[in-house]
Amino acid sequence: MSKSASLTSGLVAVKGHAAPAVTHVQAMRHTEKPVGPNYYKALTVKLDRERYEALKNLGVKLDKKSQEIFTEALDLWVEKELASARATQ
User: Fold this and answer.
1) Distance (Å, rounded) from C-alpha 27 to C-alpha 60?
2) Which of 21, 53, 59, 89 is in the most buried spot, having the most CB atoms within 10 Å?
3) Which residues, 6 or more positions from 50, have their beta carbon under 8 angstroms from its beta carbon?
């Protein structure tokens, strides 16, 4: 049986002064968030079966990915809502 490592006072943190260990990989991470044309944020959307099938069927007919169809639809909706908000001001 191998001998376990001994706990010395250097390994025990004083209450209220504990800090996470930093690994080499963590130290190399960038803290800046990506911006520009390569930035994206993942989003999960739940669709009922009818909408899901309509989206997929339309994608096949138009030879477009669901992402493209969804993005175009969202852009049109945002444009419409902004125009409506400006009209009521």
Assistant:
1) 45
2) 59
3) none
- Cα of first residue to Cα of last residue in the chain, in angstroms, is 78
> For 10-45, how does the pLDDT look when each residue is reduced to its tens digit (9 = 90+)?
767 777 777 776 665 555 555 666 677 778 888 999
Reported pTM: 0.55
Q: Taking the mean position of all CA atoms in its chain, how far away is CA 9?
A: 41
C-beta atoms surrounding 18 within 10 Å: 8
Inter-residue contact 66 to 59 (CB < 8 Å): yes
Which pLDDT does position 60 carry in this prediction?
Answer: 97
> For the domain 33-87, what is the CATH code?
1.10.1220
Per-residue tokens: 66: 């669901």
Distance CA 7, CA 14 (A): 14
